[in-house]
Amino acid sequence: MASAPRMVPSAVPPPPELAEFCSDVVLGLSQPGQKELPSKYLYDNVGSALFEVISHLPEYGLTRADERLLRRHADEIVDRLTGPVAVAELGSGSGKKTRWLLEAFCRRQRTSYYPVEISHSALVMCERELRDIDRISIVGFEREYLDGLLEVAAYRKSGQRLFVLFLGSTIGNFDRPAGVKFLAEVRRILQPGDGLLLGTDLEKPSTQLLAAYDDELGVTAAFNLNLLSRVNRDLGADFDLRQFTHLAKINYKARSVEMHLQSKRRQIVSIPAAEIAVEFREGETIWTESSHKYSADEMTETARNSGFRCEAQWIDEQWPFAENLLIAE
Ligand SMILES: C[S@@+](CC[C@H](N)C(=O)[O-])C[C@H]1O[C@@H](n2cnc3c(N)ncnc32)[C@H](O)[C@@H]1O
Fold first, then answer.
1. 167 lines ligand 1 (CB under 6 A)
2. Cα torsion for 210, 212, 217, 221, to the nearest 10°?
3. Mean pLDDT of 27-35
4. Per DSSP, what are the bridge partners of residue 138?
5. Distance from the CA of 96 to the center of ligand 1, in angstroms?
6. Which of 51, 68, 219 for mutating ligand 1's site (highest number of atoms within 8 Å of CB)?
7. CA 19 → CA 15, 31, 90, 102, 274, distances in Å?
8. pLDDT tens-digit map of 188-227
9. Which CA distances in Å does 222 have to 24, 36, 122, 210, 227?
């Protein structure tokens, strides 16, 4: 078993904007069992650019399925939300596929769109991607999901309905109980009659899932390894990226695909800003992301347990994926 991280005195404390990253790294790499790093740190400028490439890979059918559904059903989705509507999107990424919905709203009325993103470069990409839509106003929030949504809710005009988008099956990054808790927190910020469009990737054969998270070109591997480069860049660590490999594996019990970074040999990595040195055994992994997969019919109960009702669902047959329209009760 790898020993607990050693404290190493540091002459360079992290700047305030990196303090949370630093403490999350210490916490995640000091776990007595499975080491982990929160998946939100995968998305710095490089990570967001790599994710954009992943969404074009032949193995990763998820984004194309999401986009097909939005393109085909945009008018129908928009028609179900009558009256004045403001649109918020949690973790918008580049916002490319959101265009279909926003164009449908803007054909009906002048529309405010509020992307909420932790990644600065994704937010810039999103604003650039969508600003040419006629009759749109875009105000981005570089915030965590719920902090951003709280600010958006404060912008709501009287009589205006809020429509929240959580696309790309990003909900799958939470385990099931945490997902329901997160949706309930979203619901608490909303008012009855507000909408939530939730994209969920559906269960599929394990070979197809493993290929989606471990593509032949190695883009997903680079996306995952970039997290270690980020710790090197921001916290002055000395991770040798060649001594770690990307690993995707299925967790059958959790019904998820997990991404890990596996140490090729016994090694010690020092992270000066965090004042620790971390030992890795050969074969030991850092768990960096989970993507939970769903059945189409579990959404009714998930919605009910978080204060919504599932009003409608659209499924892509080519790459099983569901777009679920939830309405706040
Ligand atoms: C899986 S990507 C999906 C992007 C886009 N919605 C799509 O469907 O292609 C997740 C996005 O959420 C953002 N994100 C991750 N954690 C976040 C958090 N805690 N708060 C706000 N944004 C977050 C990431 O920067 C990333 O752009």
1. yes
2. -70
3. 96
4. 113
5. 13
6. 51
7. 6, 19, 24, 37, 9
8. 999 999 999 999 999 999 999 999 999 999 999 999 999 9
9. 21, 18, 18, 16, 9
